[in-house]
Amino acid sequence: MATYLPLMTDQQFIQLLDHSAFGKGAARHAFRVPTDPDVVVKKTVRPHPGSNMTEWLIWQAAAAAQNNLREVLGRCISISESGTYLMMERLDDLNPSDYADIPDVPTWFNDPKPDAFGKRNGVIKIRDYGLVHLDKLVSEATTHPPAFAVNARMKRDFGI
Ligand SMILES: Nc1ncnc2c1ncn2[C@@H]1O[C@H](COP(=O)(O)OP(=O)(O)O)[C@@H](O)[C@H]1O
Ligand SMILES: [Mg+2]
């Protein structure tokens, strides 16, 4: 697979794209990259690039946490400066015979259609995770504030 900068200009994306989309959803159109069969680019067709931004953010969070979600989510590779373009690993359409092999999904996942899943090299992953149950994503569990705030509390409350 070629390497790409995680952040590219919209113009850099436009130069990579095939002339027409091969797949269309309500929010995004998907394009192949003729020079790279391992990736697709999703172009936002809405005024706001919400789905691209959501997928990018969730992928970055899973990568930073190094958690198991990385095995069930399509890998996001690069996003454009405006968010209009998002590059993701290519995950081809499933056949109905694949459905029983779809893995468990995160509780926040909110697009229970076969089309939201794809397969490449025998591995099935979620390729459309732009729709989420936000209440599940935003947990109310809290932890300590940053160290400077903890220090200030200690000083205020205990004089140390
Ligand atoms: N990672 C991918 N690999 C291959 N095709 C994809 C990938 N992601 C999306 N597609 C294709 O593009 C279409 C639209 O993308 P999708 O992520 O479903 O956008 P939307 O948010 O508009 O539903 C999908 O139905 C599918 O055909
Ligand atoms: Mg979709």
Describe what this molecule looks like in 3D.
With 160 residues, the chain is of the alpha+beta class. The chain is 24% helix and 23% strand. It has four helices and eight strands; from the N terminus they run βαβββαββββαα. The protein has helices spanning 10-16, 50-65, 134-137, 147-158, and strands at residues 7-8, 23-24, 28-33, 36-44, 76-80, 85-89, 117-120, 123-126. Strands 1-5-6-4-3-2 form a six-stranded mixed beta sheet. β2 (23-24) and β3 form a beta hairpin. It is globular, with a radius of gyration of 19 Å. The chain starts with 6 loop residues before the first strand and ends with a helix. The mean pLDDT is 94. The site of adenosine-5'-diphosphate has 19 residues, from β2, β3 and β4.
What brief labels describe this structure?
160 residues; 8 strands; single chain; binds magnesium ion; Phosphorylase Kinase, domain 1; globular; 23% strand; binds adenosine-5'-diphosphate; alpha+beta; 4 helices
Instruction: Name the CATH class of the largest domain.
Output: Alpha Beta
Q: Summarize the helix and strand pattern as letters.
A: EHEEEHEEEEHH
Number of helices, counting only DSSP H or I runs of 4 residues or more: 4
Give the CATH architecture of the largest domain: 2-Layer Sandwich
CATH superfamily of the largest domain: Phosphorylase Kinase, domain 1
What portion of the residues fall into strands of 2 or more residues?
A: 15-25%
Number of domains: 2
Mean pLDDT across all amino acids? 94
Distance between the termini: 55 Å
Rg computed from alpha carbons, rounded to a whole number of angstroms: 19 Å
